[in-house]
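Consider this pair:
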Amino acid sequence: MEKALKKLFILPLLLALLVTLTPILPAHAAYNAEVEFESDIVYMESLDQGTVIFNKNADKRTPMASLTKITTAMVVLEKADDLQRVCTVTQEELDELAGTNSSTARLVEGEQLTVEQLLYLLMVHSANEAAIILAHEFSGTTAAFVDEMNAFAAKLGCKDTHYLNPHGLDAEGHYTTARDLAIIIRHALQNDEFAKIVGTPVYEMAATNKRDATKYNNTNSLLVPGSYYSYTPCMGIKTGTTAEAGYCLASYASQNGYTYLTIIIQGAEGWKNRTYSGGNTAFNETIRAYKWVFDNIKLTPIATPKDKVAQVDVGLGRKKDKVTLVPAQEVQALIPSSIDSSGISIELIPESLPKEVLAPIKPGDKIGKAKVLYAGEELTTVDLAASEEVKRSWPATIWYYVKKGFGYWSVRIAALALLLLLIALLIWRRVRQKQQKDSNLNMIRIRHDVDGSGGSLRGVNTELVRGRKSSYQVKRESRRRHRSRSYWRKRR
C-alpha cells in the first residue's frame, strides 16, 4: 500500500505544482495522472487557495449515497428561522422508507423532535427518516423538497447534479460529481451551524416524548476519539454507503495552517470487490492522502516583484526609453518539499504586452501578463507591473501630439482654413493700402482745385500730384528723424 501511495501522489504532484497568488487567484488547471488507486473517484483541493491537489474522475457522474444529505441540511438551514421548531413524526413519513432496510434512528409515529435534533440525526447518525420528516416539514411533500434541492444546486452553479430524494438511497437519475460536491461543500462550510453539526463527534440527544436521552456516534469515524479510524486533523463532514456508490466520504482537515477538502467515492465495482479485512476504503485512503499532503506539501514563494521578467519600449519618456516588468505580486506554489523549484519559470505572454507604453509610468502600473510554468506545463498566469518610474518629456509630448494631430482629417482641414485666412488677410491689407493712397490723392486734388469750386483739376500735373506723400507718411518720417537725432545726441 505504501508503494501505491507513492505512485498516487508523487507522480501527479511532480507534473502539477498547484500555483496560487497572494492575494489568491483562482487555479487555472488541475492535472491528472494514471496512478494506482482503488476508489473510482478521488478529489482533493486546498480550501485555502482553491487549487486542486488531486483529481481522479472528478467530473464523472456518480451516485453519492448519503452525501446527498449535505444538500438536504443546507436547504433546511437556509429556510428555517427557528431551529427549536417542533416536528411531529407521522406514519406516512415513516412508510416512505418501508422495505428499504436503510439507516434510521428508529423514530416512531407521534414522536416530537426539534428541527435541530433532526439535523443532528441527519448528519451525525445519517438517519434517513430525518430527511423525510424535514422534507415534509419545510416543503409539504418529499417531491416538492427535492425540487428545492435541485434549485439550490443549480443556483450554486452545479451542472452535473440531480436529486430524486433527500436521503441518498440509490435511484436511477440520482447523481452528482466530485467537483459539484466540492462547490456545495465550500458553500455549506460558510454556514456556522452546518460546520458545527458536521464536526460533532458524538451527539447526545435530549429525551423526547417517546424515548430517553440517547447518544449517537458520528458515522464519520475520523471524528470519533478512540475509533479505529480516528484522525485528529479531521473536522467533518459526511459519510455514505450504498451498493451503487460504495464507500463514500466527504471530509476536510486542517493542520499547521493548511486546510484541505477530500472527496472519495469508491464506486460500485469497488464495493462488489471489497474485502472486509481491508476495512473501509474511503476512510483508509482519505487518511493516507491527508498524511502525505500535510507531511510533504508546503506553500513556497517561487517569484517576487524583484524578479525581472521582460522590458517594454516607452514613448515620451524623460531619459528612459524602456521600462522593466516584474510580477505585480508575490507568486507562491504548493509544492512537495523534496522537489527542486529550479524547474519553475515565468514566461511572458507576448500578445498581452503592448508594443509601446507612454510615459508617465509609476512603479506598480500593470503592463501585460506572464504564465508560470513547471517542466513546461502552464500552471497559472500573473500580472506584470512596472518596476520603476518613468517621467514624461514635455518637448517630446508636444511633438508627438503635433505629429499625431496631422494624421487626422479634421486637423488638416483646420490648418488649410487657417492658411486661407492668412491669405485673405494679406489681400485685405493690400486693398486697404491702395484705398488709402487713392483717398490721399483725392484730398490733394481738392486742395489744388484751380477754380476753388471743388471741380476737376485744370492744368495740374496729375502724375506730380500722384507722387506726393500723404500727411500720415510725412508725420511718420518726421517722428523717425526725431528719434534718430535724439539717439545720436545721447550717444555723443
Summary: Residues 406-491 form one domain.
